[in-house]
Amino acid sequence: MLEVEGLATIRGERLVFAGLSFALPAGGALLLTGPNGAGKSTLLRLLAGLGRVEAGRVRWQGKDALADLPAHAARVAYLGHQDAIKPGLTAAENLRPWGGGTAAALAAVGLAALAELPARLLSAGQRRRLALARLLLRPAPIWLLDEPTLGLDAASVARFGVMLAGHRAAGGVVVAATHLPLPLAAAAELVLGG
Fold this sequence. Notes:
The chain is of the alpha/beta class. Helix content is about 30%, strand content about 25%.
């Protein structure tokens, strides 16, 4: 489903990685690990179509995924380091632009009781959960996640595990950069910078 072949990129004047290859079938998951600065976030951005590929290919269902960036953007849900939450809006208002199902998404991440609270009053972990709720509102088969459990408590990580399992059971793929264990059963691991 998602294939990477011979991928290489440069940041500044430094080669970040070269010859990177992997394949993920429907329901597959890949953990990106390695030290800070190894290229985990850079790889996620390349997979999202947000960076320059120096060499190699990214394929989706056998076709060049990056040849049509608007079409690729429609099949990708990207969660970066920043939560992208508007502090002046309530939790529910932050999700409404993403479509219907706001109440169910808030419930899935344990924020239903805080739906009408301004986002500026949410804790860091609550803001991260709100960002994760967007994944449930956007039917994208590819989830690209950069440190998705940053700031989450154990109960929130468990809820996130249910989200991941549901996405994979529906045939979606997950690529996640992390320094901590994630609730991704039978995930492959790619160590960068090692």
